[in-house]
Design goal:
Keywords: Cell membrane, Kinase, Membrane, Phosphotransferase system, Sugar transport, Transferase, Transmembrane, Transmembrane helix, Transport
Shape: globular
Membrane topology: Multi-pass membrane protein
Number of helices: 18
Strand content: 5-15%
GO molecular function, one term: protein-N(PI)-phosphohistidine-sugar phosphotransferase activity
Distance between the termini: 20 Å
Radius of gyration: 23 Å
Protein name: PTS system, glucose-like IIB component
Number of strands: 6
GO cellular component, one term: plasma membrane
Order of helices and strands: HEEHEEHHHHHHHEEHHHHHHHHH
Amino acid sequence: MKKNIDLEAFADHIIASLGGKENISFFTHCLTRLRFNVKDRSAVDEQSIEMEDNVVGSKWAGGQFQVIVGQNVIEAYDCIAKKIDPNTSNVNTVSGTKKSFSFAVVFDAFAGCFTPLLPLLIAAGMIRTMVLIAIQLGILSTTDGTYLTLNTISDAGFYFLPVFVGATSARKFGANMGLGMLVGAMLIHPQFVESLSSGELSLFNLPIYNATYSYTVFPTIMTVFIMSKVEKIISTRSPLLIRSVLEPVGTMLIMIPLTLFLIGPFGTFLGNYVTDGIIFLYQTLSFFGVAILAAVWPLLVLTGMHSAIVPYQMQSLAVLGYEPIALTAIIISNFNQGAASIAVAVKTKNLNLKSSAISCAATAVVAGITEPAMFGINLRYKKPMIAAMSGSFIAAGIAGLFKVYAFSYVGSAGIFGLPVFLSDNVMNLICMLISCLLGMLITFLLTLFLYRNSTIG
């Protein structure tokens, strides 16, 4: 999106093209996209939105319409939000329609729960990254007060994930946000954790399963989803005079035993099984699994389903202490999207395309935001995308052979994400760097060979 634009006109155009604000049932954004759930899909004028100069592209994914606008997405979101009733963006129930169960719907649910938390994860992850660098360079020691303070702050972003996810899940599923946070908070309360680990905790004389809920996300998301249904039933059947008390109290009295005896343990098992499943695939396919994920990663980004992998990353880091496949593949893929754009900039004679390609490449490599490069350059000309996916497959396969692991989460999967590969074994980071550079070189050369130069781009 251009810097000097008429945001008011842009917002009016988008809202009108979506069938008016009455047709919007849910509205949020991520790092580069405006995400809309609409009541009547046929009312959306996709061609009109695509023709908007400040729109990079648009996609339907999991019943959600995503408008890619680039790095000025926050300004666009704020302007559109002011024109939409504030309560509308907190509703996710589409009137008169019922979504059938599918993996796309599940991915959309996870993405909706995590997208608002990206700034939090980026901040916590980057602080942890800076602390790791300071430790490696000898600037800080593990006994230093500054280290202890910064490490605590960065750890808080991940330890209290159940509380944060409780809030965003409540917003996504249409439940009360306060109750959503309470569900997450009760699972990590210090006294609850201590009593649970000692086996002293029970409810109605029934023992509570000893599970670790800090750093986890699956139990809270599942609980809040079910809570949203319970809350709605109680609300519609409560006498108006006592609804304000009966709704929250009744909801929690039902959800507490459900969560502690059933949903919480099941969510923990699910999270562990997802992690174990991916690790099994990694151990079975070895480097091939990393290579495949890196190659198809742009397709996940294009469909808007890439946010759904965040829960696995959190779970893997919490359970294993490292993450062996996803972040390696993602960073390599992002770098190669940038390399393909750089090659287009080198080969094209079109000055506007050259300038755009350089800007898109810098965004992909430095910030790890690839939508401008993918929609604006590589997918548009097809051959650069093929080259990037090929380079990613080869480079990630090499990283997989070297068994490169990430030891922390970082929200920026670009240059600033590389320090998460720091460990006691410095070769882990060196192998990652070699893989990235080799992948970019392969992608660059393949793009130069495949992309046909022309004065019009």
